[in-house]
# Entry
Amino acid sequence: MVSHVEGLGAPGLTTRLTTRWQARLVKFVAAVKARDDVKTSLPLMSGERVLAMTCDSGGRWVAASDRALYHHGGVTAASRRSTEWVRVGWEEMGKLYWNDREGTLTFTGMVPTVARRTVLQLPAGANLGALARERLAWTEVVRTEIQLGEHGRARVIARRQPGSDELTWLVGLDGGKIGTPSLQAALDVALSELRAQLGL
# Structure
């Protein structure tokens, strides 16, 4: 029969463990608050929802919503830190590459308001990269080439505009001069035929 039982813990062990857990809890709460503060600073459109957020290699936040990718662009001379959010709608992107192993998210812009090429360095394995690839693929309705007679051909991409029933039509010309009446007329006819063929 056992008449005496010694304590199994070393003196002060419970106190050290409690202190560590409290420190972790404080860090976690601070991180959640910082994330919430960043989320409220995003210039979201009405009804837009944030789906993922992470920090890039420079400690700047990157966010993906159901309608766009947000990152910081430009830096101020004084702080060398970005001060404004850059919003890139999924329908405004040309191509997007996510290298999961290296954590590199690279995308091209298809409209004049978006940089031709942007590279964001995210943590390897970040779910934001895979989400961005999925959102961009969801927007694409058609990607094709159309013939413009003597003016050559054009690359055409039609994308859903998230949060709307609208389609965004992106056209890249291989030949001809932009703005000439004959090229514009050939483009209008070819796009009308394509829309009719697709039932759009």
